[in-house]
Amino acid sequence: MKRFLIILLLPVFSAQVFAQVVIPPYTTKPRLGVGAEFGIPSGSFGNVFTIGFGGSGKFEVPITREFYATATAGFTTFYLKEDMKPLTINKSYVPLKVGGKYYFGNYFFGEGELGLSIGTNKNAGSAFVWAPGAGISFPVTKDGYIDAGVRYERWARDGGNINQAGFRIAYKF
């Protein structure tokens, strides 16, 4: 009878012990990351421009321990290839995106964003943006992290789409 009682109650006591080591479902605070952005244009846009360079700020709000809602604003300039300089000028844009970021474990994440990119040059117009990506975030101080990520980004607009491989490195606090 004692063995039966022990076998019956063992899962209950085990669950109580493991329940004490569960990580809380919510993190303590939102985070802001500020960083550098690099883009390598592809397709017809890549025939004219060599690289995009700029900066961005990304605000992350915890929804659960793993999932964060994100909002990103930045400024990016695409630089012409040497043989195209007499024909046109560098193009600058202000991308504004919202999305989500899911952490797989402590360091790795996947993310997706949607938004709008507004051209700053005359007649540049605006574009619908979608961007899936992945990266790593690791602590460097008690409240500071380095975020590094890569993404595919597509800007759909009248007059031709802009496709690019995007890279971001940021300090998040």
UniProtKB/TrEMBL annotation:
Signal peptide feature range: 1-19
One Pfam family linked to the record: OMP_b-brl
Tree of life domain: Bacteria
Keyword DNA repair carried by entry: no
Alphabetized UniProt keyword annotations: Signal
Domain Outer membrane protein beta-barrel: 6-173
Protein name, as recorded: Outer membrane protein beta-barrel domain-containing protein
